[in-house]
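Exercise 7. Given the encoded structure of a 231-residue chain, write a plausible sequence.
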């Protein structure tokens, strides 16, 4: 699907809008590694097409095209959450295992790469219940975020989904959520499901990175923010 998405949180940063556009594929019979392959091919194709057809427009914006070209080549690093934590700690950052990355953390990590990169296998406690647990470490999920270079942070996120009814039900309980609120979602598994994965790409965030904009509001004609355009 591709359409507007609404964010019910009071995030006021250069990367957040209360209404944004997102592309969301869900792929049947696809596991985590295959999903990461698809995400890499998709994003590298998008950047390649922009470089091929929009060089003049990017030059007007003063965009350094050499900074974008590696992204069109693919070969994105798959950095585990554990290794990302070690990188921050070795640099003297006050960050412990189980914390979620803030904008400064993502900016620091992105300076180590010349193209987008994945951070994979986040802790269960900081991600949604519907993801499949990592069989090699059940404290983590089979999930990943794509981080853009140059400090632009997360632009895509996805996971392999939990397809088993009983396991999903248990994970809803573990998250402290009301099962009745998710009865319709559980029905999707109750009557049969298949292994599947999915991801979402924030349209404005990708545009902001490609065009090197200062704020995602510059990537949309009528930005809806927490103090602008109600509701």
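Solution.
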């Amino acid at each position: 699907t591709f359409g507007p998405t609404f964010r019910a949180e009071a995030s006021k940063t250069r990367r957040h809008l209360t209404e944004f556009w997102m592309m969301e594929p869900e792929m049947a019979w696809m596991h985590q590694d295959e999903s990461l392959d698809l995400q890499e091919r998709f994003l590298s194709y998008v950047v390649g097409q922009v470089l091929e057809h929009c060089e003049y427009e990017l030059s007007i914006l003063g965009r350094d095209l050499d900074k974008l070209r590696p992204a069109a080549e693919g070969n994105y690093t798959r950095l585990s959450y554990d290794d990302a934590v070690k990188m921050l700690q070795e640099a003297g950052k006050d960050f412990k295992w189980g914390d979620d990355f803030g904008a400064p953390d993502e900016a620091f990590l992105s300076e180590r790469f010349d193209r987008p990169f994945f951070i994979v296998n986040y802790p269960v406690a900081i991600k949604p219940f519907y993801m499949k647990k990592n069989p090699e470490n059940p404290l983590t999920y089979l999930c990943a975020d794509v981080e853009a270079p140059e400090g632009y942070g997360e632009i895509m996120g996805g996971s392999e989904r939990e397809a088993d009814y009983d396991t999903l039900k248990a994970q809803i309980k573990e998250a402290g959520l009301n099962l009745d609120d998710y009865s319709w979602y559980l029905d999707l598994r109750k009557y049969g499901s298949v292994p599947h994965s999915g991801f979402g790409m924030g349209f404005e965030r990708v545009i902001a990175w490609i065009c090197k904009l200062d704020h995602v509001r510059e990537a949309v004609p009528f930005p809806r923010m927490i103090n602008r355009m109600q509701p």
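Remark. The chain has eight helices and ten strands. Students should compare their own answers with the one above.
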